Amino acid sequence: MKILVANLGSTSFKYKVFDMPRGQVLARGGMDRIGGQGSVHTWRLGDGPETRQEVALPDHAAAIDEALQRLIGPDRPLTALDDLGAVGFKTVHARGISGVVALDEDVIGRMVEYYPLAPAHNPAYVAAIRQFAKAAPAAPRVGCFESAFHGQAPLRRQLYAVPYDWYERYGVRRYGFHGASHRYAAEKVIELEGTRELRHVNCHLGGSSSLCAVRHGVSLGASHGLSPQSGVPQNNRVGDLDPYALDLVVRREGITFEAALEVCASQGGLLGICGRNDMRDIEDAAVAGDERCQLAVAMLSTAVRDYLGAYVVEMGGLDVISFTGGIGENSSIVRGQVLAGLEFLGVSLDAARNEALRGEGTLHAADSRVRIHVLKTDEELVVAKQTWEFLHPASA
Length: 396
Known about the structure:
By secondary structure, the protein is of the alpha/beta class. 39% of the residues lie in helices and 19% in strands. The chain is globular and about 55 Å long.
């Protein structure tokens, strides 16, 4: 069965076509800076060469159309969209939904209800689901919700200190997201280390960022809360914020509460601090002496360290730190700031290796008790497996 996995980030679209259950990748591609300037589509068919082309991508719908143009035709993975056995989505949030589900109108409606909680992702995913429903109606659409990996976290780590009936009636709690990336990192580290008996923190750092505490392969919780807007500062999302700040701004600016939330979701984070929301641009400016870009990098690194420290206490120690996501894979500056001065935890960074590494590898020095891995997370493979198992429960 050919399964296309759609992975939509706030400003990115990655996709892979798998031959399942073998897990063979028939095609892969990715686009970034969607909705901005300088969008690039990089794709590869099978084992062929990688092709890179600048494209105009005003929104995710344009990105999907661009991808399908490269996938369909002679000597390509699909002769027609009817060849698709299913489309798997790395869905984010929906009222009362977790795990792996068929994306019917009820689930889509629940995703729409949660637009205010995931404004950067849910509208894009709903549009993509409906776009594929029209283009390939025979292919089942399966949602693999990101919160599911964190479902075994202890209740004391899931709840906010709000009236308990808010949790019971409205589901107000910490959900945690980036489940596919954190699940992949958890499983990959177990494979690399040869044991499940690990206290592991995965730092998924990219346009959207979060940390996850993993003990013995099980999530104890992640830095995102009720929505993907919380946790560490992100590209244009504020992260953790005292809610009374919104009341202050609403009254002083004379704007609505909804308008203030929109600012938090689209003009906050790294963008709010330094006027840029892509770490590559921020680091270039920081190196050139831009003090606010230097501040933005330091604020992200400090927030990551805060959560890292909390998770070390939760697990009673630390065996492994891993980095995933575009920033985690490629930013030696952020990694270096996050890991600086942690020798008291048994963390010893090989500075030269950190500076040179791009992509997968290890960063720990020979005398480091804590191992440090940089992983090229394969969220699409996780979603392809979940989609296949959902459609073929007897083989799971």
